[in-house]
């Protein structure tokens, strides 16, 4: 009888403490978010009714957890706690359940905030980051699965975890894959070719034709300069570069140099003039072609779009058609990346490196990883250090860890004129290489691809490019994300893609009329390319052309092997 009274008393005290904790948490939210008279922070308020509803739900669910005590409970659906070790350990199971309740409630509280869209997005992002970092699975003292593994291996998993931690501290980043399993030029970036031109910004690689005849218009591929080109040439079976050659295109790829101190003053104009415009000119010259076709991927597409506008301003048309893969030209809808960008941040970056300096590759890599913290950060922290595991070899994650630097002035210009002010789509607002940029003058056929689950270039942001380009257009949407959606070769017969011959004003309207097709979108794109390639001509027997452009070194070249 006394024990029942004691338990009831404890339960009442627990509920009172929950109420006090709720009040303190809400007070902290409001102290951080509500501006003082001298503050420029945005206003943030909550509906009393919504708060009361959330508080009552929280206290009710927490009380149910408390009343259940440490009795067995079903494993949570969250994969971090799905292992049987969690359900067999009552304390661990209880900590996971409490954590998930707190996570749901804090996210609901962020959603309930009455404020502007950007502030709400930032609040949501901050809560997600904090909850990802504070999960009990991230701590050996609370991770039942890691504890079980330590017992089963008699402590060897802990020793291996310490070794993994020391190795990652030495290399400067968390290992996502077994990096020792790969080497650029040996088992990634292996398509046969040669460097036929280089300057201080890039090497131009020409690839060996895989057909007896090729299209007369060569094909230039422009990868993002914030990553290395070999995402497009990982393995023979998933290489977009090899696929282009198999389709009869004489293929050239820009391999951007990984900037060091000698390039810290390079600007956006340099990347357009000495980069894109030079690559287009050399590709024409090597192939002795009046026109070429070109592809830009991610930031490579933004660079390509800018270069095409510069050429259009000069009334030059060396590019017959363009393909834009997961690319922003219109930066109205930038998704989660918008939480980082405001005038104060851009001004800080301009002050920090607008006149010179380098944005280190690891900083960029960390930013993109924390957009998906559970999958790309804490998953590996737990596996590598708490469980002592070595992540399996995975070519895509090896590439993802091979980061690159950016010149500060180029990066600062990009931030202000794209993410902050969206100037590329405002005719005449940007001057690049001495020319006023107007995408409305880029009157060529364009194939635009977007990935449905892309968190870097949201699908609506990719679609928005269409309204600024006056030529004949085709839009295709693929399944999956920013990288996996693009690198989806037909040989794998995976995923699906969507098409719609009509191009209404918005992506949502386009999607209503879109038709789904199984498999890869690459054949759809290859069929679109055929009429733009020109006539068939005999494939060249050697790399380059004459004495002016000779093979400098075999692909993939030196530049791609330089580490940040």
Describe it.
It is globular and about 80 Å long. It has helices at 2-33, 48-68, 84-88, 90-112, 117-133, 144-152, 156-171, 240-246, 268-287, 299-313, 343-353, 361-369, 373-386, 395-401, 408-420, 459-463, 507-512, 522-529, and strands at 193-198, 202-207, 213-215, 219-222, 251-256, 292-297, 319-325, 358-359, 406-407, 431-432, 435-436, 446-451, 473-478, 496-499, 515-518, 536-538, 553-554. The model is unreliable at 1-5 and 30-39 (pLDDT under 50). 42% of the residues lie in helices and 13% in strands. The chain has 564 residues and is of the alpha/beta class. It starts with a helix and ends in a 10-residue tail after the last strand.
Short description:
By secondary structure, the chain is an alpha/beta fold. The protein contains 18 helices and 17 strands.
Provide the helix percentage. Answer: 40-55%
How much of the residues is beta strand, in percent? 5-15%
Low-confidence stretches: 1-5, 30-39
CA-based gyration radius? 27 Å
- How many DSSP-defined strands? 17
Strand ordering within the main sheet: 15-14-13-12-7-6-4-5-2-1-17
Overall morphology? globular
The major pleated sheet works out as: 11 strands, mixed
Mean pLDDT value: 90
Structural class: alpha/beta
Number of helices: 18
Q: N-to-C terminal Cα separation, in Å?
A: 69 Å
Provide keyphrases for this structure.
eleven-stranded mixed beta sheet, alpha/beta, two-stranded antiparallel sheet, 564 residues, globular
């Amino acid at each position: 009888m006394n024990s029942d009274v004691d338990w009831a008393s404890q339960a009442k005290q627990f509920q009172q403490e929950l109420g006090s904790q709720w009040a303190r948490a809400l007070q902290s939210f409001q102290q951080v978010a509500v501006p003082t008279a001298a503050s420029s922070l945005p206003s943030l308020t909550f509906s009393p009714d919504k708060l009361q509803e959330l508080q009552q739900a929280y206290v009710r669910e927490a009380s149910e957890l408390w009343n259940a005590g440490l009795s067995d409970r079903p494993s949570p659906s969250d994969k971090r706690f799905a292992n049987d070790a969690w359900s067999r350990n009552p304390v661990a199971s209880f900590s996971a359940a409490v954590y998930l309740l707190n996570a749901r409630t804090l996210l609901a509280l962020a959603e309930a905030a009455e404020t502007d869209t950007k502030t709400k997005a930032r609040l949501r992002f901050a809560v997600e980051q904090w909850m990802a970092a504070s999960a009990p699975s991230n701590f050996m003292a609370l991770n039942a699965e890691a504890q079980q593994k330590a017992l089963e291996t008699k402590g060897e998993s802990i020793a291996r975890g310490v070794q993994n931690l020391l190795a990652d501290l030495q290399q400067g980043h968390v290992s996502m894959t077994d990096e020792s399993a790969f080497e650029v030029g040996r088992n990634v970036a292996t398509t046969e070719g040669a460097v036929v031109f280089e300057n201080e910004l890039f090497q131009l690689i020409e690839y060996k034709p895989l057909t007896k005849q090729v299209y007369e218009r060569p094909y230039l591929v422009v990868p993002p300069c914030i990553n290395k080109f070999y995402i497009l040439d990982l393995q023979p079976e998933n290489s977009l570069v090899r696929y282009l050659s198999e389709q009869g295109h004489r293929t050239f790829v820009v391999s951007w140099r990984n900037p060091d101190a000698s390039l810290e003053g390079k600007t956006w104009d340099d990347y357009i003039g000495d980069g894109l415009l030079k690559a287009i000119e050399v590709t024409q010259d090597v192939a002795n072609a009046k026109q070429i076709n070109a592809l830009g991927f991610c930031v490579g597409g933004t660079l390509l779009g800018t270069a095409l506008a510069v050429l259009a301003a000069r009334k030059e048309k060396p590019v017959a058609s363009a393909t834009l893969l997961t690319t922003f030209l219109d930066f109205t809808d930038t998704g989660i990346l918008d939480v980082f960008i405001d005038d104060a941040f851009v001004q800080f970056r301009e002050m920090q490196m607008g006149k010179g300096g380098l944005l280190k590759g690891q900083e960029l890599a960390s930013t993109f990883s924390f957009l998906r913290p559970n999958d790309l950060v804490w998953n590996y922290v737990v596996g590598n250090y708490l469980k002592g595991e070595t992540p399996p070899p995975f070519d895509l994650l090896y590439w993802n860890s091979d980061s690159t630097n950016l010149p500060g002035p180029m990066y600062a210009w990009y931030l202000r004129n794209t993410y902050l002010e969206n100037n590329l789509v405002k005719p005449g607002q940007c001057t690049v290489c001495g020319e006023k940029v107007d995408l409305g003058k880029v009157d060529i056929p364009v194939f635009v691809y977007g990935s449905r689950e892309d968190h870097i270039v949201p699908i609506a942001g990719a679609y928005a490019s269409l309204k600024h380009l006056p030529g004949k257009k085709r839009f295709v949407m693929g399944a999956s994300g920013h990288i996996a959606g693009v690198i989806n070769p037909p040989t794998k017969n995976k995923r699906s893609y969507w098409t719609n011959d009509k191009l209404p004003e918005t992506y949502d309207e386009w999607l209503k009329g879109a038709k789904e097709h199984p498999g890869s979108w690459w054949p759809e794109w290859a069929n679109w390319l055929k009429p733009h390639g020109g006539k068939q001509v005999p494939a060249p027997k050697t790399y380059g052309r004459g004495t002016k452009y000779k093979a400098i070194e075999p692909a993939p070249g030196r530049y791609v092997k330089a580490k940040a």
